[in-house]
Amino acid sequence: MLGEADGKLIPATFERCREILRACIRLKRLFLFLMILAAALVSSSVFAADNSAQIPTNVFSIAATAGRSLSLYNYQDGTEKGSWDYSANPSYELSKTLSLSGLFEYSYDTVAETGDYGRGLISLTQSGYQLFGDHLNVSLIGTVGLPISKSTYESSLQASTSAGIKASVNNSYFVTKKLDMSFAVKGTKNFHAYETNSVGQVNTSLIFTESSSLSWSFNDRLQVIIEVYHFNTVSYFGTYRDFLSHNEELDIKFSPQITFALGHSWGLPYVSTLKANGQDFNFNLADAQNSIVYAQIGVTY
Questions:
Q1: For residues 148 and 164, what is the distance between their CA atoms, to the nearest angstrom?
Q2: How far apart are alpha carbons 231 and 245 in whole angstroms?
Q3: DSSP helix/strand/coil, 150
Q4: Beta partners for 105?
Q5: CA torsion angle 145 146 150 153 (round to 10)
Q6: One digit per residue, pLDDT tens: the chain, 301 residues?
Q7: In terms of DSSP bridges, do strands 240-253 and 48-49 run parallel, antiparallel, or are they unpaired?
Q8: Sign of the alpha-carbon torsion through 17, 272, 156, 201
Q9: CATH 2.40.160.40 is the classification of domain 49-300
Q10: Which helix (H) or strand (E) holds 77?
């Protein structure tokens, strides 16, 4: 006969299995979508790449940024959470439609007075494709993530790999060419030495990201960009979660080499799509707990 503890354990086990099954179904659908779209990019007759000229016009370039970010949340002593943020983005054109690039970040926390590396990425991008005639300009992106930050060491992350597709709408079909729109989907697989991090929390195994971007160019020097991100994650124990974030930015181009940006991000870097009660949708334009504002200057060589 089953004891009281066993009677409680069995429903909990069934509920956990159902949660894992629901997560697998969602991920399977997204995975099939990615595979079907990738196959269409390669073999469909409505899809063609422009390989007429394979000689790159600018073989190597590097973009560097430096900025200051502040949280909208104030501590009891009046201090604000903030940081100085830096990034380097080298790029090498292998051909007219194929490029190799990197992204390396570093941030200094002004409250804790400590610094740490952020993302370390190496990406290969194949562009020049067109879908549905010339309505969509499509790029295929493969990325390898490097464990360069303290948090990646604490989680025992060894590396990550991702594959994604980005589609930009040809603005010639809009009422005005001042408007630009793009969409992207990406799947990421993390590789950890252990299933849990240094404090016992379960590590994330899979991440699926959908993003959209909308921009308006007032002229050649002034542009407003709005970006929205949705993340689906699956832990090594099969727990499924999803998150949201969004970003608004005003870009000012002083010259082809120098830019300045003012922006706001909600998510830090992202928040759950559901509130604490697990039922109400959680989305805000801004709030003190999850918002930061930032200023950034960029130089391209």
A1: 22
A2: 9
A3: helix
A4: 87
A5: 100
A6: 445 444 544 454 455 555 554 555 555 555 455 545 554 544 443 444 544 445 555 689 999 999 999 988 776 665 678 999 999 999 999 999 999 999 999 999 998 899 999 999 999 999 989 988 889 999 999 999 999 999 999 999 999 999 999 999 999 988 899 999 999 999 999 999 999 999 999 999 999 999 999 999 999 999 999 999 999 999 999 999 999 999 999 999 999 999 999 999 998 667 888 777 777 778 788 888 889 999 999 999 9
A7: unpaired
A8: negative
A9: yes
A10: none
Neighbours of 162 (CB within 10 A): 19
Domain spans, the chain: 49-300
CA atoms of 41 and 28, how far apart (whole Å): 20
Q: How many CB atoms lie within 10 A of CB 67?
A: 19
- Token duo for residue 89: 């983005």
Residue with tokens 């130089």: 299
* Separation of alpha carbons 301 and 290, rounded Å: 34
Listed in order, strand segments (DSSP E) in the chain are 48-49, 60-74, 80-93, 98-109, 114-131, 136-145, 157-169, 179-192, 204-217, 222-235, 240-253, 258-272, 291-300
Torsion-angle region of 200 (φ positive above 0: left; ψ -120 to 50: alpha; else: beta): left
Residue with tokens 């949708």: 281
Start-to-end C-alpha separation, the chain: 75
Give the type of residue at 294. Y
> Which tokens is 64 given?
């560097």
